[in-house]
Specification:
This protein is an alpha/beta fold. α9 crosses α10 and α13 packs parallel to α15. It is elongated. β4 and β5 form a beta hairpin. The longest helix has 58 residues. 56% of the residues lie in helices and 16% in strands. It folds into 3 domains: 100 residues; 152 residues, Reverse transcriptase/Diguanylate cyclase domain (Alpha-Beta Plaits), CATH 3.30.70; 228 residues, EAL domain (TIM Barrel, Alpha-Beta Barrel). The strands form 3 sheets. The protein has an 8-stranded mixed beta barrel, surrounded by 5 helices. A 5-stranded mixed β-sheet has the order 2-3-1-6-7, with helices on both faces. A two-stranded antiparallel sheet has the order 4-5.
Length: 559
């Protein structure tokens, strides 16, 4: 027994491998496990080769042979171990490379996810992130009835002009500075996002009262408008409007509450308010507008539109020089619907574009017919701002004129001052192309916008239409208002023909005649009328003296 113990001790000394005490919670590397397993196999083979487990003691010669063989096996085993050690080193190197690559992939993935959810310019969350946030809050509100949140919709006024006149670099810098000011006002938990372009949104998830949220919106407005932004020596004043919407259980999707905030923002813009809240009044208006929009879509398909024509006369001899084509909608059950109700809806929805195409076609067909009776008649047609902004407008007008047979010089296209100045460079291009067609161009509602005279001078208008607000002011003073005199002198100096609209009294007519205004249009002369009645006037001789004495209503009744 004693010899057996001595032999076992000798085995351990010969192998020269330490006994490893491995904790139970230690996780071995697979290669280290392989090494240990190989060693155990070798030891077993060595013990068996020596036949140490036999009860008989081996002879000395046999022991030497067994020992020699075992030593050879040990040497081979050591070589295997060294080879395994090299593999372990290679494994660790490869593992390190893989780990670094994995970390790089994770970092790139996180960056990609961050970039997908954030605006690259302002570093704010973007629309995608906003939608995810709103989806989460909507789900939360469904589970917790007492939960509430608010959305602010922020729109900058005429930001496009900053890009056009000062450049996109300054425009981008301005957006970043505006984002900073907004973030300084709102709470840490509130989410400020850039929706795109010049639009921002703020999500307020704190359980504040509506009064406090409105005050917060006013604070945001004040922080941006109270002092100008200084960028590269340019002082830039920014105007904006904010729409506010509160969570409503009827909101099913993020688009629902964003739509309500957007509607409130447009209401604020239309009424010159810093902030507007989406309440029941706006909600009812939205529902009404939605119904009107559906009705307009049907009206286009079912041909419910018709044109009325308002005469335009010469203030020199009272002769009829043409008509303005005005759109009317005759609903099959509601009768005539006021243009003041459906035109703004058509503008907002984009339906104004196909509607204007229809107006152009019908008006050109009608003037082509009337010109067979009176060769020099003209037809005036209003162009919407959206239609005028389309690059394809000149080619569309050319196609309609060719198709209808109308003389180009008999077609007068009216563009509002605001539309013309929205993008002066594009306006100049479109107007020049329209001029090449031979059509006449008139600037509508002149004097009500904020145009630069130098910009107006660049645009190739043939005529100016004086806004009715300046005409009505004639009755309020002993003499003609100075601004009216200035507009007429300006038109005359630029070689433009002037038409005064909205004439309702003899005093207004005589005053405009005295000031040298060329043409007149208004209820004093005639109200807009169906084409059948207008066609009767085409064959009537107009005398200005008779018109002033009898007023237009009587003239039309006896025509």
């Amino acid at each position: 027994m004693m010899k057996k113990l001595q032999i076992r001790s000798m085995i351990i000394l010969i192998i020269g491998i330490s006994i490893l005490l491995i904790p139970l919670n230690f996780v071995l590397n697979p290669l280290y496990t392989q090494i240990i397993f190989t060693l155990l196999l070798a030891i077993s083979a060595f013990v068996l080769s020596l036949n140490l487990l036999n009860e008989q003691t081996p002879s000395k010669e046999r022991f030497k042979q067994s020992k020699k063989k075992s030593l050879m096996k040990i040497a081979a085993l050591k070589r295997d171990i060294e080879s395994l050690k090299e593999q372990v080193v290679l494994f660790e190197q490869e593992n390190k490379i893989l780990q670094e690559e994995n970390e790089r992939v994770i970092e790139e993935r996180n960056k990609f996810e961050h970039d997908a959810l954030h605006d690259p310019l302002t570093k704010l969350p973007n629309r995608t992130f906003l939608v995810e946030k709103l989806e989460f809050l909507l789900t939360l509100c469904k589970r917790i009835p007492s939960m509430r949140f608010y959305v602010l919709f922020i729109d900058l006024v005429k930001f496009k002009n900053i890009n056009d006149y000062l450049g996109h670099t300054i425009g981008d810098r301005l957006l970043s500075l505006i984002a900073r000011r907004i973030k300084r006002v709102v709470g840490v938990e509130d989410m400020v996002t850039r929706l795109g372009g010049d639009e921002f949104a703020v999500v307020i998830s704190d359980p504040l009262s509506i009064e406090k949220v409105q005050q917060l919106a006013l604070n945001i407005h004040k922080s941006i408008t109270s002092s100008p932004f200084l960028i590269r020596k340019n002082k830039i004043d920014v105007k904006l409007h904010i729409g506010l919407a509160a969570y409503d259980p009827l909101h099913e999707t993020p688009e629902d509450i964003l739509r309500d905030a957007d509607i409130a923002m447009h209401y604020a813009k239309e009424h010159g308010l810093p902030v507007a809240f989406f309440d029941d009044t706006l909600k009812n208006q939205f529902l009404e507008n939605a119904e009107i929009e559906r009705g307009l879509t049907i009206a286009l398909k079912e041909k419910q539109f018709l044109l009325h024509y308002q005469p335009i006369i010469s203030l020199v001899d009272g002769d009829l020089i043409g008509f303005e084509a005005l759109l009317r909608w005759k609903h099959p059950t509601k009768g005539f619907i006021s243009p003041a109700k459906f035109i703004p809806v058509a503008e907002d929805s984009g339906l104004i574009i196909p509607m204007t195409d229809w107006i152009l076609t019908e008006a050109c067909l009608q003037i082509a017919k009337w010109q067979k009776i009176r060769d020099n008649l003209t037809i005036s047609i209003n162009l919407s701002g959206k239609h005028f902004a389309m690059e394809s407008l000149p080619s569309e007008v050319a196609n309609i004129i060719n198709k209808t047979g109308a003389k180009p010089e008999s077609v007068r296209l009216e563009v509002t001052e605001t539309s013309a100045m929205e993008n002066p460079n594009q306006s100049l291009k479109s107007l020049n192309e329209l001029k090449k067609l031979g059509v006449k161009l008139s600037i509508d509602d002149f004097g009500t916008g904020y145009s630069s005279l130098s910009q107006l001078y660049r645009l190739p208008f043939d005529a100016i239409k004086i806004d009715r607000s300046f005409v009505s002011a004639i009755d309020e003073a002993e003499e003609a208002p100075e601004i009216l005199k200035a507009i007429i002198l300006l038109g005359q100096s630029l070689g433009m023909k002037l038409t005064a609209e909205g004439i309702e009294t003899v005093k207004q007519l005589k005053c405009l005649q005295k000031l040298g205004c060329d043409y007149a249009q208004g209820y004093l002369i005639a109200k807009p009328m169906p084409k059948e009645q207008a066609e009767e006037l085409v064959t009537t001789s107009w005398k200005l003296e008779d018109l002033i004495e009898t007023r237009a209503e009587n003239l039309i009744e006896t025509a």
